[in-house]
Write a structure and sequence with these properties.
With about 280 residues, this protein is α/β, with parallel strands linked by helices. The protein is about 40% helix and about 15% strand. The protein is built from 11 helices and 10 strands. The protein has an 8-stranded mixed beta sheet with strand order 3-4-2-5-1-6-7-10, sandwiched between helices. Strand 8 and strand 9 form a beta hairpin. It is globular, with a radius of gyration of 18 Å.
Amino acid sequence: MQTGVHSFMVDNMKTAAAKPAPTPVKIAGVKKIVAVASGKGGVGKSTVATNLAAACQMSGLRTGLLDADIYGPSLTKILGITQKPQLTEDKKLIPVMAHDLQTMSIALIMGEERAMLWRGPMVMGAVRQMLFDVAWDNLDVLFIDLPPGTGDAQLTLIQSAIVDGAVIVSTPQDLALIDARRGLEMFRRMNVPILGIIENMSVFTCSGCGSEFEIFGAGGAKDEAEKIGVPFLGALPLDPDIRAASDAGHVYMNSHAESRAALLYREIAEKLIETILS
């Protein structure tokens, strides 16, 4: 069943990219879609998306996680998965199960080390294929980890599928917030509801002395949320254990379920669940 998945993806991408932008529709097998975005890279967006998805799954929701970052996919590393997806009899990609999450990433198909030397139409085709040519199985919510910025992948998602809300991830520093505003503006212009802003890497607590350090500043994302009138979902710490878990392919929410950061993730997930599933 795995034979031909690579060629299947490449052969169909050009066809998918050539199609005109359709009216956004629901994805088969998916009740709600949450896009996780950032204005720039390096703010921990993929880690946040993964742990939010895990928190929702732990709350009893059937949850999926799609890595829509074609040029720099990272969810396979964070989730610790390498196996290629199989195909159904009707040529749909079967999501790879990881940590009780239904997952899909271009890295599972093309290889984690492969450089994607693709122009916009190929990126658009790949995103559409991972949205509509995947056999998502009765998901309550699908989290989509978008690449940083406001480019082809973001526009393809918004123009193709009904997105129920977007979450913006930023660090507290001004440079990250400037880029986060661009992401917010994109979703607003495309009539996608803004579920809120998350401030990541907010405070570092020294394990030796217990002192707290605001390495990237603190409170900037909360102030920005209040200024522009969108919900502030919460602040997540700069925690070495989160980094170590991601590097090792262990979902932090599962390996540190009783930690302070895991509690914060659950609180944010509960806010999202209340908003999108109410």
